[in-house]
Amino acid sequence: MRKIAIYGKGGIGKSTTTSNLAAAFSEMGYKVLQIGCDPKADSTKNLTNGVKIKSVLDAIREKGENLVCEDVVYQGFNGIWCVEAGGPTPGIGCAGRGIITAFEKLEELGAYDVCKPDIVLYDVLGDVVCGGFAMPIRGGYAKDVFIVTSGEMMSLYAASNIASAVKNFGKRGYAEYSGVILNSRNVEGEEEQVRKALEEIGGDIVSIVPRSSSVQEAENQGKTVIEALPQSEQAEQYRILAKKIIEISKECE
Q1: Is 127 annotated as catalytic?
Q2: Which of 37, 151, 165, 193 could be bridged to 129 by S-S, CB 3.0 to 4.6 A?
């Protein structure tokens, strides 16, 4: 099994990248489980025809001790398993703590045994790497961490913070920082800006995903580019990224 966390600043396109990776991996014959770790609970919607699935925390609030695995684990495009951790009631509670609760509940329900994935993808908000949002790293859930960034200053600032957090946990034998995915925003000198930042952050660019209107076109249909426009150049770029991540990521129990 490969356990991969995709981090990045909110709005940088990490969920789009993650869901297209999930679709690409499934095309390659892998059984995939994608877990959204964002209070908005919208990581997997492009794998489920634009429909937001019930989050673990919402299901806990509704069903309590009567909750079963089927209440929170759904199958989407090409058999991809989809889970959303969710968040607390707005204005009440801590989003980070909510992720911890959701992960504990997934373990209790035996979700990983039900899905039996070859690849687990954790899509994690990276604006704040607090205890909860660091759960995929520090809890030993993920083995490899990839950071989605652009050449914009705030995106690179978040990437630096995330890489620093991963390196700190890596010293304890947890996940490893495995590089960045440049999700292009067509900023002037973008690749150069990112490579310059990486001199300080460390790591390398795993792949450069070009900016394309096909992403919006696909998402307007509630689908990934891989599903909606499989013959497009953008779909091929996601396939290339998927192959590179397979080469880099590590097999683990």
Answers
A1: yes
A2: 165
Distance of CA 9 to the CA centre of its chain: 12
What is the DSSP code (8-state) at residue 202?
-
Which is the catalytic residue, given 42, 54, 127, 243?
A: 127
Catalytic residue status for 143: no
From the list 3, 14, 105, 223, the catalytic residue is 14
Q: How far is CA 249 from CA 26, 92, 121, in A?
A: 16, 37, 12
pLDDT more than 90, % of the chain: 80
Share of the chain above pLDDT 70, in %: 98
User: What residues pair up with 123 in beta bridges, in sequence order?
Assistant: 6, 36
Encode pLDDT of 22-41 as tens digits.
999 999 999 999 999 988 89
Question: For strand 81-84 and strand 74-75, is the pairing parallel, antiparallel, or unpaired?
Answer: antiparallel
57-102 confidence digits (pLDDT tens): 999 999 998 999 999 999 999 999 999 999 877 777 788 888 899 9
196 is annotated as an active-site residue: no
The answer to whether 138 touches 131, Cβ cutoff 8 Å, is yes
- For the chain, helix (H) and strand (E) counts, in that order, are 10, 8
Pair type for strands 176-183 and 119-125: unpaired
Of 3, 9, 45, 105, the active-site residue reads 9
The Cα-based distances of 157 to 50, 152, 163, 168, 180 in angstroms read 31, 9, 10, 17, 13
* 42 annotated active-site: no
